[in-house]
Amino acid sequence: MTEPVELGVDPQPRKRRVAKPLLLWGIGITVSVGFLTLISSLIWPGQAVYLAPVFCEQPGNDAVVVSDTYSTRDGRSTNFTLYCVGERGQTTDKGWLQPFLLMWAAYLVVVTVVVSVVLIAAKGRSPSEKL
Asked: Helix, strand, coil proportions of the chain in percent (round to 5)?
């Protein structure tokens, strides 16, 4: 004989699938932070100057961001470049991709920590506090 089953009660607990929601959250946060980094670097490209200790060796540890604007057939285009400047004026071109990716990683770490803290704080609340 089988045991009686109560209506609305699952006899076997369901396995919680955690990997898929975490993967979707991770992709969403990464893409969102990418757009945040892109917009912030267009508004304030000088933030790459703070990465000078990572990209510039001694004695050229001062950094300058240079924007080059030129006309194209479709309109105007602007490129940003991080240069390391030495004591005697010598410059080293560090490009823009690596500083941009490092800024993206830094923003990603900050946003991930903030989202994690908010989720942990929200999980610890009782249902009556959520209202």
From this structure: 50, 20, 30
Say how far apart CA 81 and CA 95 lie, in whole Å: 5
- The pTM assigned to this predicted structure is 0.71
Q: Which of 101, 91, 99 is nearest to 52 (CA)?
A: 99
User: Please, which residues have CB within 8 angstroms of residue 71's CB and are 6 or more apart in sequence?
Assistant: 77
Q: Report the percentage of the chain scoring pLDDT > 70.
A: 82
Q: Is the pLDDT of residue 73 over 60?
A: yes
Residue pair 65/95 in contact (Cβ under 8 Å)? The answer is no
The structure tokens listed for 119 are 């989720």
**Per-residue exposure over 11-48, b if at least 16 CB sit within 10 Å of its own CB, e if not:** eeeeeeeeeeeeeeeeeeeeeebeebbeeebeeebeeb
Q: What is the pLDDT of residue 26?
A: 86
Q: How far is Cα 128 from Cα 126, in angstroms, rounded to an integer? A: 5
